[in-house]
């Protein structure tokens, strides 16, 4: 009778197991994951190019808006300067895509040796 009272019962829960693993992984030291480094390097190239092209486009739109404001609100005094300011804004907006391409090419050229080294290590 004494053996009947000493039973081992185990319940398995997949959700609890996943949560335990997720919490445990937060506190483990980070290991050098070459694939993750490769992804981060690749993303950094696109992020930098995107940021600079967005800045160029947003500044261009704001300058163009100032030019439009000058031409429509102060027609008598600021029409010609407003047109010139608006054209400068249009030029800045139209330069956003070439800025993106140029920065993308230059960043790719800078990071290319590291990308090639990491891909060679991963392929071997």
Structure description:
- It is a single chain.
- This protein is an all-alpha fold and 124 residues long.
- It has one domain.
- Helix content is 85%, strand content 0%.
- Helix 3 packs antiparallel against helix 5.
- The model has no long low-confidence stretch (mean pLDDT 87).
How would you sum up this structure in a few lines?
With 124 residues, the chain is mostly helical. It has helices at 2-5, 14-27, 34-73, 75-94, 96-123.
Topology of helices and strands:
Elements: H1 2-5, H2 14-27, H3 34-73, H4 75-94, H5 96-123
Largest sheet: none
What's the shape?
elongated
The percentage helix is: over 70%
Q: How many structurally independent domains?
A: 1
Rounded to the nearest angstrom, the radius of gyration is: 29 Å
Separate helix tally: 5
How many E strands?
A: 0
- Give the overall average pLDDT: 87
Order of helices and strands: HHHHH
């Amino acid at each position: 009778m004494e053996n009947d009272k000493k039973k081992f019962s185990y319940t398995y829960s997949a959700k609890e197991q996943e949560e335990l693993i997720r919490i445990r992984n937060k506190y483990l030291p980070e290991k050098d994951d070459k694939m993750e480094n490769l992804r981060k390097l690749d993303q950094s190239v696109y992020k930098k190019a995107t940021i600079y092209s967005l800045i160029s486009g947003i500044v261009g739109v704001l300058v163009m808006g100032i030019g439009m404001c000058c031409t429509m609100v102060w027609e008598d005094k600021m029409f010609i300067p407003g047109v010139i300011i608006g054209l400068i804004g249009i030029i800045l907006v139209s330069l956003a895509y070439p800025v993106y391409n140029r920065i993308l090419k230059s960043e790719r050229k800078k990071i290319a040796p590291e990308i090639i080294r990491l891909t060679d290590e991963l392929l071997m």
